[in-house]
């Protein structure tokens, strides 16, 4: 019986010493390394790590504004050439939109719409997505339409271009399918420095 109590006493001591070891608080973490600049006053600190990329893979950067000019030149033989410019300013990487519609009693509505999204590239050029809609009615409301008569003309285009800031570039030149009318579109994107 004495051997049993002795064995139980030894087992209890071993178990209590293991439990005590498990309950000890963890060792404190090692001290952070000294800043390179304070450890070596003559040396410069290393540059900060690059900015984390955005979900589309581009690095974060300050936003700049970009002015977009879209110029329409309408050439036809039955009248003088007409030129119209739409200008919008929007932040880099964001869409800008202009809606301009004329409604007349005799001819109905004529749209002149521009959507543009500039994306400033690391080399300073601008990747520009442009959507345009341009049109006009040709026959007054309430008048009979003659066979072969043009009643409405419209232009709907979507283009992406790589532009140098401040330099105009011809975007498109389209021909009217039923006449000698031509519509040329020129775009310019200018990065605005503040």
Describe this protein's structure.
There is one protein chain. By secondary structure, the protein is mainly β. The chain has a domain at 66-192. The chain is 13% helix and 46% strand. The protein is built from 2 helices and 8 strands. It has helices at residues 2-22, 36-39, and strands at residues 65-76, 79-91, 96-104, 108-120, 126-137, 152-163, 169-175, 182-192. The chain has a 4-stranded antiparallel beta sheet with strand order 2-1-8-7, with no helix packed on it. A hairpin with a 3-residue loop joins strand 3 (96-104) and strand 4 (108-120). The longest helix has 21 residues, at 2-22. It is elongated and about 95 Å long. The N and C termini lie far apart (95 Å). Mean pLDDT is 74; it is low at 4-12.
Condensed summary:
Helix content is 13%, strand content 46%. It is mostly beta strands. The chain has a domain at 66-192.
List the helices and strands and how they pair.
Elements: H1 2-22, H2 36-39, E1 65-76, E2 79-91, E3 96-104, E4 108-120, E5 126-137, E6 152-163, E7 169-175, E8 182-192
Antiparallel strand pairs: 1-2, 1-8, 3-4, 4-5, 5-6, 7-8
Question: Would you identify the regions where 5 or more consecutive residues have pLDDT less than 50?
Answer: 4-12
First-residue to last-residue Cα separation = 95 Å
Classification by helices and strands: mainly beta
Sheet with most strands: strand arrangement: 2-1-8-7
Helices and strands, in N-to-C order? Answer: HHEEEEEEEE
Q: How large, in whole angstroms, is the Cα Rg? A: 36 Å
Count of β-strands: 8
Write down the overall geometry.
Answer: elongated
Q: How many helical stretches? A: 2
Largest sheet: 4 strands, antiparallel
């Amino acid at each position: 019986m004495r051997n049993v109590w002795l064995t139980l006493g030894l087992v209890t001591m071993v178990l209590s010493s293991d439990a005590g070891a498990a309950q000890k608080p963890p060792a404190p973490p090692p001290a952070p390394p000294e800043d390179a600049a304070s450890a070596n006053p003559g040396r410069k600190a290393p540059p900060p790590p690059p900015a984390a990329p955005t979900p589309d893979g581009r690095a974060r950067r300050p936003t700049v504004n970009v002015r977009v000019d879209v110029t329409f030149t309408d050439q036809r033989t039955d009248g003088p050439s007409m030129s119209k410019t739409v200008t919008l300013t929007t932040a880099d990487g964001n869409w800008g939109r202009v809606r301009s519609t004329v409604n007349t009693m005799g001819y109905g509505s004529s749209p002149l719409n521009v959507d543009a999204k500039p994306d400033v590239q690391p080399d300073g050029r601008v990747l520009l997505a442009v959507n345009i809609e341009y049109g006009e009615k040709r026959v007054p409301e309430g008048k009979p339409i003659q066979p072969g008569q043009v009643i409405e003309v419209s232009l709907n285009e979507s283009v992406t271009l790589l532009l140098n800031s401040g330099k105009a570039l011809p975007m498109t030149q389209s021909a009217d399918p039923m006449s000698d009318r031509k519509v040329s579109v020129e775009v310019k994107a200018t990065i605005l420095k503040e």
